[in-house]
Amino acid sequence: MFTQNDIEKLSELVKVTVDETEKERLAGMLSQTAEYMDMLNELNTDHIEPTYQVTGLTNVFQTDNLNKTLTQEEVLSNSAHHSKDMIQTEGVFDRE
Amino acid sequence: MKKELCFLTLQEAINKLKSKEITSIDLVSSCIERINEVEGNVKAFVTLTTDQAIADAISADKLIAERGEEVFEEFPLLGIPYALKDNFSTKGILTTASSKMLENYIPPFESTVSQKLNDAGAILLGKTNMDAFAHGSSSETSDFKKTANPWDLKRVPGGSSGGSAAAVSANMCIFAIGSETAGSIRGPASWCGVTGFKPSYGRVSRYGVVAMASSTDQPGPLCKTMWDAAFIMNLISGKDINDSTTVENVVPNYTNTNYSELTIGIPKSYFEIEMDEEVKRLSFEFIEKLKQLGFKTKEIDLISPKYSIGVYTIIQRSEVSSNLARLDGIRYGLDRSNFGFEAKKRMILGSHVLSSGFHDKYYTKAQKVRTLIIKDFANAFKEVDLIIAPTMPITALEFGEGEKNPLFGEMMDILHEGSAISGLCAISLPIGFSKGLPVGGQLIATRLDEEKLAFAGIKYQENTHFHKEFPKEII
Question: I need a labelling partner for B345 at 20 to 30 A (CA). Which of A50, B26, B172, B471 fits?
Fold first, then answer.
């Protein structure tokens, strides 16, 4: 079960805003979804290893060659604000 | 004559270009004319690149005139117009993934798949609409427009590659590219009456594709025939240094396969779920037809697909919340207040199942059940070469129906999720019509066994006509 408080807390973790209507809708919807997730408990998974990826590939390395890469101009081309060669962001720490 | 060229299959178009019966500019113009005629109703495209397409067609014709038929050895798709799902990055061309978040994003690089197609001489007509960030199975979660099913404009095309499927079905292009996480190629192929090819995870590079769930995302073609899809697979498959999950395995020639005997498994549990009676009947006809064509069949047991819903939901939401965390509006795109409801819903659930206290209960549990499902398929494939099932449990829904169920997409994709999280390959073929709407049937093969799918699909279509039907009244 998800409460509207759960949704609010989770939305802060995800860094999105949800309004009151969305909160109510999401609490209902996700509670329904949880029923399907809980259904997995019907299956015994003792001594079963989890699978995180299916390729079986391990330690994939690139050959140590110089490859073509993006130019500084290209990298900056989509940033909302940039100055000289740097992307500008809002300050993270308060300065007193 | 010229007007009808957009109806050509890829195979026909290549042959006619080679023999100089038609020119690329004729072919491209015919598709553009068709787009102008039906796009107002179908709404398959987010961005059109038709001006560039005309310029490219002129260059293609010049090359063909200069070098003759031999030029197709170097450029097998020379002069062929195609449509690309809008989650493939295209250098200098808007790439939104149908989300407001990326409404201004112009990638400075090209996805591997579109690069390979461009290198083969294919001509981009435009970027197709989809569920925003591929979150959905109807294409209705697009932040920009609702694509209609060309067979019935009141209905959805399926999703998330709905724009690509609709564009092929409505003959606005010769072929299209989509991507699938669990059902996003097979589903819309089925509902729009076209052929969809979902490759094994690792077969086709994901480089430059806006990520949804990275452990199952796979690009693949949506085409008018199985031969066409197999031909595109020849060109887009293979190891890519920019995607470390692609495999080294040699890419076979999918248009030239031969098997003397193949056994098809019929999973009882896949036919026991709630589904439309007509879909079920046509699926059994599909099986009968394959039997007539010399395929052997065998009943098999597979874990009920109902468990795949939970496993897939947990894994996919987790990966979505992680992948979308990078969107901060600083380096590209808009800020996080622009996420749509569906993306918020998925990220919130994803962060919940990954948080301490719930991680073992949900995330690890799901990955363990994933192991069970993989082993279950592996056991089945010891006895059979292919597994058969309906693609979708019902035919295309009317607009708005999906919103009524919070797990709409997951329920619609119930017959895709198990094979998707196991990294298997599959195709969806048109197998008939129910009340005028197309029905698809799917074949699933084990990892990297795409050749068998291509063989069975091509053989089936040599002996059936369903793939040749196209919606008549779109205007």
Answer: A50
Strand partners, B298: B265
Percent of chain B with pLDDT over 70: 100
Q: Identify the helix (H) or strand (E) that includes residue B186.
A: helix B186-192
- With cut-offs at 50, 70 and 90, classify the pLDDT of residue A93: confident
Residue to test with chain A: of B210, B348, B363, most A Cβ within 10 A: B348
Tokens of A95: 């300065």
Q: Rounded to an integer, what distance in angstroms lies between the CA atom of residue B42 and that of residue B291? A: 37
First to last CA, chain B: 20
Share of chain A above pLDDT 90, in %: 79
Q: Determine the distance in angstroms separating the CA of A96 from the nearest CA of chain B, rounded to an integer.
A: 25
Q: How many CB atoms lie within 10 A of CB B134?
A: 31
Dist. CA B375–CA B355, nearest whole Å: 28
* DSSP bridge partners of B264: B297, B386
How far apart CA A50 and CA B365 sit, in angstroms, is 8
ipTM: 0.95
Whole-prediction pTM value?
A: 0.97
Residue B475 has pLDDT above 80, yes or no: no
Does residue B142 carry a catalytic annotation? Answer: no
Cα(A25)–Cα(B263) distance, rounded to whole angstroms? 47
